[in-house]
């Protein structure tokens, strides 16, 4: 069976440099919530890629669920960032690395 995860690429908007401490706190709280719920595989900040803030890799049941989580990200809700949602198929030992 095809196993998918979803990558949320977080892109900076022109107002990204106006982020407040409150928004950063809400962003981190959102990350903790996703992690506590088992919906976050990994997340991080991009270094050296102008215009890109970071990414989440989400472990959810559907693209629709991933889309809802992206829309709830405080950086997106506040207009500081936009996102692109990418589906990808996992390659691992269980599926012989898609061979």
Q: Helices and strands, in N-to-C order?
A: EHEEHHE
The biggest beta sheet is recorded as: 4 strands, antiparallel
Mean pLDDT, rounded to whole units? 96
Strand content: 25-35%
| Helix proportion range | 25-40%
| Rg, Cα atoms, Å | 14 Å
- Tertiary shape: globular
| Spatial separation of the terminal alpha carbons | 13 Å
**Strand segment tally:** 4
Which secondary-structure class do the elements indicate? alpha+beta
Tally of DSSP helical segments: 3
Strand order of the largest sheet: 2-3-1-4
* Low-confidence runs of at least 5 consecutive residues: none
What does this protein look like?
Helices cover 29% and strands 31% of the residues. The chain has 99 residues and is of the alpha+beta class. The chain has a four-stranded antiparallel β-sheet. β2 (40-45) and β3 (52-58) form a beta hairpin.
Topology (SSEs and partners):
Layout: E1 4-12, H1 21-36, E2 40-45, E3 52-58, H2 63-71, H3 74-77, E4 81-89
Antiparallel strand pairs: 1-3, 1-4, 2-3
Short key terms for the protein model shown above:
3 helices; 99 residues; four-stranded antiparallel sheet; 31% strand; alpha+beta; globular; 29% helix
Compact summary:
With 99 residues, the chain is an alpha+beta fold. It contains three helices and four strands, in the order βαββααβ.
